[in-house]
TrEMBL record:
PANTHER family: EXPRESSED PROTEIN, SUN DOMAIN-CONTAINING PROTEIN. This is Uncharacterized protein. The chain crosses the membrane at residues 171-189. Keywords: Membrane, Transmembrane, Transmembrane helix.
Length: 249
């Protein structure tokens, strides 16, 4: 299951938000409020998937918690132990999964993290801002690069974990403030395994190392030209009421 989930990249987007401030006067009082002019997302997830990738079969690059770094290794707090120094690197995932299954702890969880690296967001943001200025828009522009589905956690079967994952039970604890007592209890009861990452590279080298830098799909400039017209159109026609998503997530 972990290997299968590692074959799915995280959700990745550009979120473009434009607003201006409107000032009104009434009875000698000045009131300011923000007016949303546009707010939409453009999909970036496909840019992380290399050619030949088979979703469900081909994982992203797997990285494991190194022996010299503290982390959750079936422990309650970050620790340097136990390690898998005697295991072949190719078998790390299997070894950690087997260790999790063999763990006698009643409450435990295993987390796969998904991470994006080496995307030159500063360059892409600069290109998008330049395009938006060409539309004569003069409001405040915010451009961010949010992610989603950045982790998958598998919980062991058992009453406590079933309760912690049941929505209505969680709401009872939130509204009654019982979470003040239960969260510390869950923290000290749960053995955590956070030892593996599925890493998705936008390019073969980090931003700034342009010589020999090969994008996984499109580099930042080509991606911008691919979506430039659609972004401009969306800014010009948007009424600020809806958040649109352009492209495939």
């Amino acid at each position: 299951m972990i290997r299968n989930q590692a074959s799915y990249p995280p959700g990745y987007y550009i979120e473009i938000h434009g607003k201006h401030t409107e000032t009104s006067r009434h009875n000698n009082k000045e009131t300011k409020r923000d007016i949303v002019d546009f707010h939409f997302r453009v999909a970036l997830g496909d840019e992380l998937i290399p050619k030949g990738h088979v979703t469900g079969l081909t994982p992203g690059k797997l990285e494991f918690l190194p022996d010299n770094k503290r982390g959750y290794r079936g422990t309650i707090i970050p620790s340097l132990n136990p390690t898998l120094s005697d295991v072949e690197e190719a078998d790390y995932l299997t070894a950690w999964c087997e260790k999790y299954v063999a763990d006698a702890s009643k409450v435990k969880c295993f987390t796969l993290q998904r991470e994006i690296r080496w995307h030159d967001t500063a360059k892409l943001e600069h290109l998008i801002r330049s395009a938006l200025l060409e539309t004569n828009y003069r409001g405040h522009i915010s451009i961010t690069f949010p992610t989603s589905h950045t982790s998958v956690t598998v919980y062991s079967p058992g009453l406590i974990n079933r309760w912690r994952m049941t929505t209505w039970i969680r709401w009872i604890f939130y509204l009654s403030f019982l979470w003040i007592f239960t969260w510390p209890l869950l923290f000290f009861l749960t053995s955590r395994y956070e030892v593996v990452k599925s890493v998705w590279y936008y390019a073969s080298k980090p931003p700034g190392e342009e010589m020999g830098r090969i994008p996984t799909t499109n580099d930042e400039v080509n991606y911008f030209y691919k979506w430039q017209s659609a972004i401009k159109r969306n800014v010009l026609k948007s009424n600020g009421l809806e958040q649109h998503i352009l492209g495939f997530i």
